[in-house]
Every structure is written in C-alpha cells, then in structure tokens.
Amino acid sequence: MRGTSRAIVNADHFNVSRNMNRALLPFLALVASLSTHLALAEQPPTVPLRFDGVYQAHLGGGSQSLYLRFYPDNYVVAMSYAGPPEDVAEFINRSHFTLPQGKYQLAGSRVTFTTKAARGEIDYAGTIESSGITFHIHSRITDFASDEHFVFHKELFPDSVIPPKTANQHLSTTAQAKSGDGETGGER
Fold it and tell me: Looking at the domain assignment, is residue 77 inside a domain?
C-alpha cells in the first residue's frame, strides 16, 4: 500500500507539473512577444527620418501642398503652401512662430506628433517608408481626418529667413483646398 500511495503522489505531481506547464506556455509566449516588440520599437527605422529638406503632400486636386520640416531635436514645423518645395525651404522654420509646430516621437519606423497653432491642434501618426512618410492626419479643429503620403525633397535652408507676404495668404487656404470651409487657418 505504501508503494501504491507513493505512485499516486508521483502521478499527481506529474499531472500538476504538466498542467502548470500548459498554463505557463501562453504567459511565456506573451512575455517573448512583448520582449521582441519592445526590442523592435527601440531600433532605428530602416529608412531614417530626413532633416535636410522637406516632406510634401499634395492636397486634393489643387495646387495646394502641405509641407513638413523635421529637426534632429524632435521638433517639427508644418506649413500649407501653393508653391514648390524650393520656395518653402526659404521660410519654413521654427522661428516663424505663426506656423504650426510640435515635438515628434520616433519609435522604429513610426513617427507621431501634434502640431499646435493659434486655431487649434492637428494630430499626425505615420510610418516612414522608402518612398516617404504616410500619415494619418486628424484635425482637432474641424474633426476632419485623412491619410496623406509625403514625399521627401532635399533642400538647402537659408540662415536668415524673412517669410514672403504670400505665405500668410497660403496658410489660410489649406481648408479650402480640402473641405472648402476655410476654418483651419493653415492646418487640417
């Protein structure tokens, strides 16, 4: 009888161990998955964010474009303008305080930020790709949202910047290019 009870205890111990291992497997898989995800998020993007030019997205069917300029210290400036990238490079900078600006976060190939301007805030969430950056953009001003692809243009930036008079006119027409209401004041 003594040998039988020892066999039952050993069999019960085996069943408990096997059931515990089954219960731990999903937990261990989750831990491994999270560790891999965190390690990937800490890695730099395969295509780096560029600071030596501007990213441009054409808005609607018109000539209006949305431009983004990124800085190495996580600063970003946005601007709507109907001119070419080389014209924008003359005055899209962080010292032009009327332009929407913010701080971006970079995690792998994901870039997110919110620009702030006098009229409100715009949220951007995007993925850096070899062809540029695709952003989901959401206006907290008008609740308008869209997906836009920005293409990079390498540009030289001047040392001192005096924005042309036409920049303010173009800043107020972004909403008209997309929604026709003119209420976004240079951002969507």
Answer: yes
